[in-house]
């Protein structure tokens, strides 16, 4: 039973779809069939690398049977029957293989038989996984163009990147195939794709969501997992469902309570396109008018910490990749040139440099904590420019430093949040002359995730982004 046009326009997100399934206005099977149809119809955008139609249909049928037997059985599932896609990089979801966009891993790794802690919590919300999204090989790019699969194209302009490394996830959500999708962030990989595609995304605080039982994507604290979504309310629900009691190695995060008046620091960044810098200024004015205190900081305030964070990111990512290659006996001729070069760099780095990088990350975290004694949040640009054309982040180039420079120029404030363990959200705040989103980034101290989402929600309500593709299940 499709929903009306008014319902679709008013709430085209996972919350709306979950409510419709619980109330019997659409079945979980109908929602799944709509998602599968959209996945096939929009396959040229390259968002999805694997579909498990049988598993998706079977899980949807189970939910419909549960509801038929007991109409209240789905009441505790905010995303009951919502089709869901899993990123090809991160904690495993049972039955969906994780190959990090690499043929080398595809030849070595089978799908996990069990959910990770994180996956189990998301399934508990009623989400129904049925496939896997595109990533750059080993996540080493801010564009999702693995040689093993077609590139993920931006739904707003297929000539442009959808971002990386959660580019396939963002493309699938922006295309309306699903309203919400799994994403991970070790250097902007949730926030950048969301920003490219007009979505909202949150990199949670370090330790806010579980990475167990094997912590395979932890990267010494750089990586966090959550989702990309069409609405802030979906982000909040996903965080509250998946967050807390991460069961090691980090202590539990205490989420700060909401506050009506926050101290916000506006930090512009040199090299950001004028239209995008203006969007950040406009967001600051709106928050000031809403009763928050806003203070402008010098553009160079975060320069030193950001440069040092880039070095920490390089050391940990390359050393981790070298360890993976050693553990699985991956040869350089099995992977893309950038991956081979990054792993070779990791082998040269050695344990002493990795330890120094971890120590440097701790110092950066302290420096940011001192800044957050004065402020509750930072407001800064998310992207320096519009999403570039496909090919702007080549992985057939073995120059690792050149790739990091390209990534830093495009998303200048992204890696700092990962190294310092801070929550950071992105939300579109208007569009440019080509109709592409003008995203802003909001960063806060550890545990301020929900407060950041409050600010993001205020901005999203002021300038809601008009998605070009309706949600398939609510059409």
From TrEMBL:
Amidase domain span: 31-453
InterPro entries per UniProt: Amidase, Amidase_CS, Amidase_dom, AS_sf
GO molecular function: catalytic activity
Function (record text): Hydrolyzes indole-3-acetamide (IAM) into indole-3-acetic acid (IAA).
Sequence similarity: Belongs to the amidase family.
Protein name: Indoleacetamide hydrolase
Organism encoding this protein: Aureimonas jatrophae
């Amino acid at each position: 039973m499709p929903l009306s046009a008014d319902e679709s326009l008013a709430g085209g997100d996972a919350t709306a779809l979950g409510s419709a399934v619980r109330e019997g206005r659409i079945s979980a099977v109908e929602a799944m069939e709509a998602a599968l149809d959209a996945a096939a119809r929009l396959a040229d955008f390259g968002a999805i690398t694997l579909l498990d139609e049988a598993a998706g249909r079977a899980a949807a049928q189970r939910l419909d049977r549960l509801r038929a037997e007991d109409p209240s059985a789905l009441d505790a599932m905010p995303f009951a029957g919502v089709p869901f896609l899993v990123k090809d990089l991160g904690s495993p979801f049972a039955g969906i293989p994780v190959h990090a966009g690499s043929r080398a891993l595809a030849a070595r790794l089978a799908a996990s038989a069990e959910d990770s802690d994180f996956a189990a919590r998301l399934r508990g919300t009623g989400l129904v996984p049925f496939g896997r999204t595109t990533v750059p090989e080993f996540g080493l790019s801010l564009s999702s163009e693995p040689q093993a699969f077609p590139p993920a194209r931006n739904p707003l302009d297929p000539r442009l990147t959808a971002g990386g490394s959660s580019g396939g996830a963002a493309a699938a959500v922006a295309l309306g195939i699903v309203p919400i999708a799994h994403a991970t962030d070790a250097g902007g990989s949730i926030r950048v794709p969301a920003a490219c595609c007009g979505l909202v995304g949150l990199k949670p605080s370090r330790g806010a969501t579980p990475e167990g039982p094997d912590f395979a994507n932890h990267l010494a604290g750089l990586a966090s997992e959550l989702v990309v979504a069409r609405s802030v309310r979906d982000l909040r629900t996903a965080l509250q469902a998946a967050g807390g009691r991460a069961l090691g190695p980090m202590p539990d995060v205490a989420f700060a309570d909401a506050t009506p008046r926050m101290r916000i620091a506006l930090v512009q960044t040199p090299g950001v396109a004028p239209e995008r810098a203006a969007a950040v200024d406009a967001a600051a004015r709106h928050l000031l008018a809403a009763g928050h205190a806003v203070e402008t900081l010098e553009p160079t305030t975060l320069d030193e910490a950001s440069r040092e964070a880039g070095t920490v990111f390089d050391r940990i990512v390359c050393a981790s990749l070298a360890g993976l290659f050693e553990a699985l006996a991956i040869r350089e001729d099995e992977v893309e040139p950038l991956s081979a070069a990054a792993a070779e760099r990791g082998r040269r780095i050695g344990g002493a440099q990795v330890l120094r990088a971890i120590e440097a990350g701790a110092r950066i975290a302290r420096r940011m904590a001192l800044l957050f004694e004065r402020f509750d949040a930072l407001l800064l640009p998310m992207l320096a420019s519009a999403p570039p054309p496909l090919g702007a982040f080549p992985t057939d180039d073995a120059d690792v430093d050149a790739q990091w420079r390209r990534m830093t120029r495009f998303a200048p404030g992204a890696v700092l949040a990962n190294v310092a363990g801070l929550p950071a959200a992105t939300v579109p705040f208007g569009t440019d002359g080509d109709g592409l989103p003008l995203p802003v980034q909001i960063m806060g101290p550890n545990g301020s995730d929900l407060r950041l989402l409050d600010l993001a929600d205020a901005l999203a309500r002021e300038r809601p982004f008009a998605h070009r593709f309706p949600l398939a299940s609510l059409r």
